[in-house]
Amino acid sequence: MSASGYRAESAALNVGGEAVNAAMAAAKLGLKTGIFCALGEDAAGDLVRAALKRAGVNIEHIAAGPATPVTTLFIRGDGSRRSVTNPSHRFNFHPEKNPAAFTGARALLLGSLFRPPFDDPGIVYSVVKAAKEAGQIVIADTKLPYDRSLKAEDLRDSFPMIDYLTPNEDEARDLTGTEDAEKTADALLALGVRHVIVKLGGRGVCMKSGGKTVRLPAYAVDAVDSTGAGDNFAAGFISELLMGKSPEEALSFANACGAVCVTALGAGTALKNREQVLKFMEETPLKTMNVSGRDG
After folding, report:
1. For residue range 83-128, what is the model confidence (pLDDT) as tens digits?
2. What is the pTM of this model?
3. Is 18 helix (H, G, I), strand (E, B) or coil?
4. pLDDT(64) > 90
5. Cβ contacts of 287 within 8 Å, gap of 6 or more
6. Of these four, 135, 144, 250, 263, which has the most CB atoms within 10 Å of its CB?
7. Torsion of CA 242, 248, 250, 254, to 10 degrees
8. Per-residue pLDDT reduced to its tens digit, 263-296
């Protein structure tokens, strides 16, 4: 540390955000992918649009906002991170007013449930209702709320229309008040969600639906940066479902996509294509897991 600040070991400029990360990963995995979000007409927005276009993501439904959300991420040596963001996430974006922008696909991913605009129960309900009426598979990835106090019970009307809810363990604990992944899943299933997938970081993943529970250990990799791991996970899960694989098979592939992601700095850096992930699954060992689900 100097008198004027801190010196990092390295720095990088990457595009990101839940929807951007997942859309780019899904395109790399071979899906025909589009994104519906808001970006400013500014340098950051231009950077994101260009990256999405290079990845093969359809950007025709990107709405114009006053400014593009920009986040500074501080990555620790173990791959965990902290962030500082600008207030552009509060932009008054209303996806429910244009269902034609998202109902033409086979699956819909809500990239950040409990963050704007999906911190408004009315908006969430309108979007998932339109998606289900269009016959879409609905996957919702969750985030810890920024400013608005919103609990799982506030989305009770929407949850029965969500096929897969994918919180990480911190988000699951915030939603349900319990530390145990299976108890968390039970609480969310009781609110009507069809499948709950709790991402446990270095301890793997737990999926529960009704009376069936599937636990997978994490892959044995050196984590460099966990940014975007959940978004790559979601893209991998959706890609396999749309290929006709079972939820269990999709979970295994998604687990590998998340592991590949953490091996490099930047949410969209490590994952290249489906063949890479399949090779990774063949060559990379899983951590051992005992009956309690903890690393061995």
Report:
1. 777 665 556 789 999 999 999 999 999 988 998 889 999 999 999 9
2. 0.89
3. helix
4. no
5. 202, 204, 217, 218, 219, 220, 295, 296
6. 250
7. 160
8. 998 888 999 999 999 999 999 999 986 544 443 3
DSSP-derived letter for residue 231 is H
Architecture of domain 18-283: 3-Layer(aba) Sandwich (3.40)
| Tokens read off for 225 | 């940066």
Tell me how far CA of residue 164 lies from CA of 24, 129, 142, 173, in angstroms: 20, 15, 11, 17
Q: Model confidence at 4, in pLDDT bands (50, 70, 90)?
A: low
Domain coordinates in residue numbering, the chain: 18-283
Q: How far is CA 209 from each of CA 75, 184, 192, rounded to the nearest angstrom? A: 34, 12, 10
Residue ranges with strand state E in the chain: 38-40, 63-65, 71-75, 81-85, 107-113, 137-142, 164-165, 195-199, 205-209, 212-216
Cα–Cα distance measured from residue 70 to residue 236, given in angstroms and rounded to the nearest whole number: 25
